[in-house]
Each structure stands twice: as structure tokens, then as C-alpha cells.
Amino acid sequence: MPKTIALVEDDAAIRENYIVALKAQGYQVQAYEDRPTAADAFSTSLPDLAIIDIGLKDEMEGGFVLCQQLRSLSQTLPIIFFTARDNDVDTISGLRMGADDYLTKDISMAHLLARIAALFRRIDLMAAPNAQKDELKIGELCVDVSRMTVKWQGQPVALTVTEFWMLHALIKHPGHVKSRQQLMDESRMVVDDTTITSHIKRMRKKFVQLDGQFDHIDTVYGMGYRWQL
């Protein structure tokens, strides 16, 4: 049965463009132009995944409110913020509210579709208790590649799908520097250098919140980043 994606986007032209692209991938699409309409629909029936813009018509943070409403209805529903707003405050706010990923509209449609597929895969694997583990262990880091989950000192690290693949790229060869281009390639995304830097900063902060002594994600100025043993 096809997966259902809810798309909440107030720009009609952008909304129609995404509807066409998502339907071409075999998804069913429920599109909404504002928060109240979407919220009413979600109170009756939940989609399999939601893509939400932050600014919705006259509500500058309507997407944040909608995300909170969705999380009160389901703790596991995959939620992607897809917005033109690319700053740390908005991103961190969105992720703290329970979004699974935060993508900016300068990425390619192929990247968005890859993120959607990855989120569905992660949900399916998490629901399969007997799924075979594919673990990488480096010191106090434990990464289950199959389930796309990460633990540090035994504690879960709530990484987005984008952050997970960037971390995976770094730990495959600890100590080796990965350029921004390599991180983009292995994370299956096309963004500017500033966005890569923001992802690294947010990922590092999540580890530091669990362990104030964490210092394993190393910036090599002018070259890129590495996982330092």
C-alpha cells in the first residue's frame, strides 16, 4: 500500500511542484496551505510522514506549532521541516520540537526524496525487533547502521538522518579528514559550505549535551572534518 505524505506549504507553486514529484515516486500526497487546515485533517487521520514549512501564511512559526501538535498525536511519525529559513535558532528549535530532519529549500529534489526514503526505512527497521544489527563501535560510540541509531556512553544520540550519514562518513575511517564535498557526497545532499558547517555544529552539540568532555569531531581548518580517536 502506498505511503501517505502530508505536505504543508503555503506557496502554491512550490506546493504543486512537490506534489508532482512525490506522486511520481508512488506516494499519496495530502497537501495543505495553512496550519489550521492541516491540524484539522491530522486530528482525524495521520499521514505516514509530514513535510512542513515553518512560516505558514500569517503564522511566522505555524510549522513549529503544527509539529508540536503532531508529536502530541504520535511520537514516531516522521516529520521533516522543509524551509527557506536556514539558521541555527530555527533549526535547533525545530529539532527540539521533535522533527526528524531539517532541510532547506536550496537542496535538490533528489536529496529530499532520498531523505524521505531514508526516514521510511528507519521507521520500518525500528519496528522490526529481530532485524539484524550492523554495528560500528569506536570507543564509547556505538552506531547501528541498519537502524540508523547512535549511542554515546550507552545513551541515545538523537541525530537527524542527515546528521547520521555525516557521522557515518566520519567514523568509517577515524582520523582521516573528510572534505565538505565528501561529506555532501556520502550524506547524499547538495548544499553550501555554511550548511555543512551548521550540521557539524549541531551534531557536535548533541554529543556535548551528553558528555561535556566530548571532543571527537575535529575541525581541520581549510580541509574539512574528522573523527578523532
Briefly say what this structure is.
The chain folds into two domains: 4-126, Response regulator (Rossmann fold); 135-227, Orthogonal Bundle (Arc Repressor Mutant, subunit A).
Q: How are the SSEs placed, and which strands pair?
A:
Layout (H helix, E strand, L loop, with lengths): L3 E5 L3 H13 L3 E5 L2 H10 L4 E4 L9 H12 L5 E5 L4 H9 L4 E4 L4 H18 L8 E4 L2 E4 L4 E4 L2 E2 L4 H11 L8 H8 L5 H18 L6 E4 L3 E4 L2
Parallel strand pairs: 1-2, 1-3, 3-4, 4-5
Antiparallel strand pairs: 6-7, 7-8, 8-9, 10-11
Helix pairs in contact: 2-3, 6-7, 6-8
Pfam family, one: Response_reg
GO molecular function: phosphorelay response regulator activity; transcription cis-regulatory region binding
Organism: Alteromonas profundi
Please explain how this structure is put together:
With 229 residues, the chain is α/β, with parallel strands linked by helices. The chain folds into two domains: 123 residues, Response regulator (Rossmann fold, 3-Layer(aba) Sandwich), CATH 3.40.50; 93 residues, Arc Repressor Mutant, subunit A. It is built from eight helices and eleven strands. Strands 2-1-3-4-5 form a five-stranded parallel sheet, with helices on both faces. Strands 6-7-8-9 form a four-stranded antiparallel sheet, covered by helices on one side. It has a two-stranded antiparallel sheet with strand order 10-11. The radius of gyration is 18 Å and the shape is globular. 33% of the residues are buried. The mean pLDDT is 84.
Q: According to CATH, what is the topology of the largest domain? A: Rossmann fold
Largest sheet: 5 strands, parallel
Supply the CATH superfamily name of the largest domain: Response regulator
State the shape. Answer: globular
The count of β-strands is 11
Arrangement of strands in the largest sheet? 2-1-3-4-5
Please bin the fraction of helical residues: 40-55%
